[in-house]
Amino acid sequence: MSPKVLESQGTKTIGTVRVVDIVIDYRVQRAQLNKQKINAMIADFDENALGVLIVSRRNDNSYVCLDGWHRGEVCKLVPEAPTQLDAIIFRGLTLQEEARLFRLYNTRATMHTIDQFNAAVHEGLEQAVNITDIVHSYGLTVSADGFACVAAAKRIVEYPDGYQRLDVTLNVINQVWGLEDGSLDYRIVEGIATFLRYYGDRVKVVTLIKRLQEMADEDGINTGFRDIIATATPYHKAKGGPVRLAVSDVLTKLYNKYLKPEGKLPDIQR
Known about the structure:
There is one protein chain. Helices cover 47% and strands 11% of the residues. It has helices at residues 35-43, 69-77, 95-105, 113-123, 126-137, 150-156, 162-176, 186-199, 205-213, 224-239, 243-255; strands at residues 4-5, 11-18, 22-23, 53-57, 63-67, 84-91. The model is unreliable at 1-6 (pLDDT under 50). The protein is α/β, with parallel strands linked by helices. The protein has 2 domains: 4-94, Conserved hypothetical protein from pyrococcus furiosus pfu- 392566-001, ParB domain (Alpha-Beta Complex), CATH 3.90.1530.10; 126-263, no CATH class. The protein contains 11 helices and 6 strands. It starts with a strand and ends in a 15-residue tail after the last helix.
């Protein structure tokens, strides 16, 4: 079979790969295996359902898995499983091309948004790289236990000055609550960004920070982001629309708390 030439300098052939030769590069793979999925596949193992793996053969002759990691791992755990699997084998790909193929082969809903995003970073996609740079500037990583609301961040930066607004939003959250303990909930992140975008220059960020800092409880612990979400929930149910608008409604009321009538922000018009 003649190799098919890709748009890059890589080639694609059909063959088999030994399960023990398959390796994982987390720059072009999901962060971790789904243990529940592994257990379910073992319990209902069927060799005929293994399908075809997608791998990249690198210059050191390693086979980097781009699709089929769970299936390969299952074959290592099931005694009667085959030791070799059918595979589409790419050769001569760059890391960026491997990341792109991983992302494209794994566009199903079952793939975690964070894994897709990190693949886009290694692919070199501008939006993903810019968001990551902002997140890293606050000492965070894009991960399940770091900055996880990448879908919200992507929506924020689609508007004019979106990257700057994401930066200001993270700065507000950091100054008020710190970047941990749930303060990076997507509803808070996108709600603050929406508030800033809607009112623009009418908002003084220092005033917003001051109002949010005033929400500390009797013990001096500020978990106001939870109160904001709790207050926004009935707003969201009553008025409909994206939850970010309901959070922004709450922020508007907080911001207006001590302002004179002529200086108050108007309600967001839906």
